[in-house]
Amino acid sequence: MKVTYFFRHPTVGFSIQRVFQTINKGVCPAYDIAEYFLPSPKSNFASILKNGFFAKKRQGNINHITGDAHYLLYFLSSKKTIVTVHDIMYFSYLSGIKKKLWKVLYINSLKRAKKVVFISEFAKNQVLKVVDLPESRYCVIPNPVSPDFSFEYKEFNKEKPVILHINGSLERKNLARTIEALHEISCHLRIVGRLSSRNIELLDEYDIDYSNVRDLSNEEVVNEYKNCDIVNFPSLFEGFGMPVIEGQAVGRAVVTSNISPMKYVAGEGAILVDPENVQSIKKAYLRVINDADFRNELIEKGKKNVMQFQLKSVSEMYVNLYHEIQL
Question: Which of 101, 199, 233, 245 has its CA at 20 to 30 Å from residue 212's CA atom?
């Protein structure tokens, strides 16, 4: 029996790919695995058709749309296809005909799935406000943290801590406020992801010592976490927030937002900030840097919190779901 995973085009982002290639490590003892990346990164009509027929020709016994390309449900067998939904925040920013089309392609299409998996209660509640799904047709399975993210002690660099910011190119990751908040704080800002011209201007304006990398392998991403002192994730919205638990798993202090779902994912193992308030973010950095007892307590609580996101338990949830679809 084969489970076929469909991933968005790799240039769109690597986070979903990383999550499900982690899950696959736990699934493959029970099922054969096939993985396909969609040929087009775009979402125009021609690209949707191209991606849809690409997926249709490669269906397995069970199909799993891993995220973003919900419209593939119109091309795949509804009796053997599940889809994992990470969030639909983009929908709230649309209007007019574009919003109506997006609803058809990415939300109404969920009615065709054999099962819809939400990665958090927050993601579930988002979707159910927009589309009515029977309770029997959906479930919540959290993202697991990869075993690659394991605890590694690092002496905290109080004089000039390295602050890691993931996916710098996405506006919702709140890099602009991060830059402003770090003004006059001695640190090195390490940014993973493409930088916008505006953020480069802000980095210069606020005289931030920084470096920037992108297109990293999974091993290189893990090393970025291990080499930093603080993981920065004051995101404005997420479906889950993987950097929070990845930072906790490695044993780093985590700064994240006091909103859903980040505050629930983080548990007590992160310092929570108002992501729209620069001073709130700045105070969090200063406390983590200057208060060693508080910082160490955060790290210990993070290590305990991350246990609920271990690969074994999450993979078992998916294996049970695949068994259910087979019946």
Answer: 245
